[in-house]
Amino acid sequence: MATEDVKLIGSWASVYVMRARIALHLKSISYEFLQETFGSKSELLLKSNPVHKKMPVLIHADKPVCESNIIVQYIDEAWNSSGPSILPSHPYDRAIARFWAAYIDDQWFISLRSILTAQGEEEKKAAIAQVEERTELLEKAFNDCSKGKPFFNGDHIGYLDIALGSFLGWWRVVELDANHKFLDETKTPSLAKWAERFCDDPTVKPIMPEITKLAEFARKLFPKPQA
Q1: Model-level pTM?
Q2: Distances in Å between the alpha carbon of 114 and those of 19, 82, 126?
């Protein structure tokens, strides 16, 4: 493990923090995990990310790096001689990976989250249909990017795997809440198998949050209106 001064400000339940943690583990970088208390923001967080005031923040040699996907790219470049490359080697493949990572955050996740915040069954049904439609697009993206290999990035976990894989815990929580399976072996067989491989990967498995614990946290974060 590398012994450089590395700290990560975040929370165990955050998908965005998960991205940074997976990248650090892929590169075998030791780090201090500074967990934020739910409902409050530490002085260090506010000082390190004065613009957005959000986690995660990676602090490397006393210099802060913010925003999850930027942090993942930074980790790949700062420790380029350690562990596998996270970003694809070809410029076009890198561009495609960044495109789909942006799609996941800007469109797919918005739909997924709307299931938890839906007001009434009709609104929830519409959100579920939208998630299914957008997940099928990701199924096609996986087949195009992986070229028949286990991960979006090919033989090992990479940038786009991290971007989507960090959501898998919350994805399961939403499935339980909606009583609906999105990673369907019939509709999205490639993604369903990829999700199993991702969660079972020795880099990811130790830091993937327990679904029951995450579901309990979700009930606090997205309380249901009283009947």
Answers
A1: 0.94
A2: 21, 39, 10
